[in-house]
Design a protein that fits this description.
mainly alpha, 246 residues
């Protein structure tokens, strides 16, 4: 379909429904596959915390069904990460009808890079932020204060952080794509750098648990990603057409 042909609202709803069903099916299949390895996956997820804890310290669960439901949620989270390329693909395919033909040619590279950036953000949180952050939080333990992290609380914290870092690492790609469409410019990005900084800290406060340390550890990479976005906009952004008088 051509970009200038408008679809009726009901067609957009039908397209959205179709894409959502495919996403749910993909996550469901990913969940089933990951559930068979739920203990191993949870062990991988908790490895940064376990390595920061003292010998003999372990995670606990405070009610009988907590361990069971925690393993279910761990398999579900792993299923989302496993099928994230499919989810990202479905999102961009939903956006595709609103683009011109030359813009649609960028979708496959964007889908690949979106998946790469999302997984890269989650890995950054896991390998960089988690070890440092857990050592900081566990450093408050003393002879009279003993940390007893529960399985449920840890999974809730870890899942929010991993998904948040995966999403924020999409920033350079999104801004570069907007620059390619001519919706933002390098000058606009530079001019509003200070406002972006405020938004980063506000967004980090919303996406991460209410701890200053985790907020700063998310806001700082966002500042770096914003500068990378400016570079991407400069290289791949839409060039201004020269006037006939030039």
């Amino acid at each position: 379909m051509k970009a200038d042909e408008k679809l009726p609202f009901t067609s957009h709803l039908e397209e959205l429904r179709s894409r959502l069903i495919k996403c749910f099916v993909a996550v469901g299949v990913g969940f089933v596959l990951c559930y068979g390895f739920k203990e191993q996956l949870f062990a991988i997820l908790t490895a940064p915390l376990i390595s920061a804890m003292k010998t003999g310290e372990t995670l606990i669960y405070t009610n009988l069904p907590e361990a069971f439901f925690t393993f279910l949620k761990a398999a579900f989270l792993s299923g989302i990460l496993l099928t994230s390329p499919i989810l990202i693909y479905q999102f961009w395919m939903f956006v595709a009808p609103g683009l011109y033909q030359k813009e649609r040619r960028m979708l496959l590279p964007i889908v690949f890079l979106s998946s790469l950036f999302f997984i890269g953000g989650a890995l950054f949180g896991y390998y960089i932020v988690f070890p440092w952050g857990f050592k900081f939080f566990l450093g408050f333990a003393s002879e009279t204060i003993k940390p007893l992290p529960s399985m449920k609380e840890y999974l809730s914290f870890a899942s929010k952080m991993l998904l948040a870092f995966g999403l924020v690492f999409e920033l350079p790609l999104i801004i570069t794509f907007l620059a390619k469409l001519g919706l933002v410019s390098v000058g606009f990005l530079k001019k509003n750098r200070k406002y972006a900084l405020l938004l980063f800290f506000a967004g980090a406060a919303i996406l991460t648990p209410p701890h200053v340390v985790t907020q700063v550890m998310m806001a700082l990479p966002l500042m770096i990603l914003y500068e990378i976005s400016i570079l991407g906009a400069r290289i791949f952004g839409k060039k201004k057409e020269k006037s006939k008088d030039d």
